[in-house]
What does this fold into?
Amino acid sequence: MVARCAEAGMLFRAGTPFLVEGETGTGKSALLAALTGAAPVLKVDCATMGSTPEDQDVLRPILSQARVLSLLSDTSEGAVTVLLDNLSEMPSEAQAELRRFLDELEAERSEGAPRLRVVGLSRQPLLDAVAERRFRDDLYYLLAGARISLPPLRAREQPEVLAQVLATKLAGRRIDLSAEAAALIRAHPFPGNLRELRTALECALMTAAGDCLTPVDLHPTSIARDAALTAAPAAQVPRLSYDEATMIRDALTSSRWNVSEAARRLGVSRATINRKIKLHGLTRPS
It folds into this structure.
């Protein structure tokens, strides 16, 4: 992932048009935000464009505005970026207009430092759209001569390490994960990728009282819900060693030993919690 980000930075600084592909939530927009910084960005959501000749009139003024802004920039650091989101869904009429624009941009790039950049984002492999004749092959090779592919979270090694770093950043203090919480994160497929992970951690941190997230803190999130739904086929999902005593202790710790709050988090009565405390010999730390 570090190598992909470094490659994207190199292409961006060179002013080469390039394509960033990845599933929803893999961090495409975040990567571009980090690259552009405070420089102006003109975003076009191709998914909102219809298949009519009038779509050229939607794209043309945006490209013209980008060209004007680029003339006002005297450094490559302040270069204007045209961001084409959901590029695979751009209608054919707009593709023709974009092709003319890129031809002009290529001629200008050969004359000096780039002051206008074009970056495309796509949730699906753009080459599939070319094969289905929904996207022009000549335009594809102009845009995707350089291509950055961001992997889904389920394909990354040790997602719990990323979760710990992200939780620490969100909380503004060091946050650790219990072994059981880390196992839940490793077992989750994360269809929403980084966006889903961030949302789950934000939810967990809102109720967590301590500096270590446990399955109790993850209970209201998609991570724990999906684990409960898929727990039946034991051959497919690893069994997590999370006994009742540990669960009760984690709930009490994360609620600062507020028995009523711990009961609410576990979905049981206060009397049940008190009975379990005595059964397992749990004591409040001094």
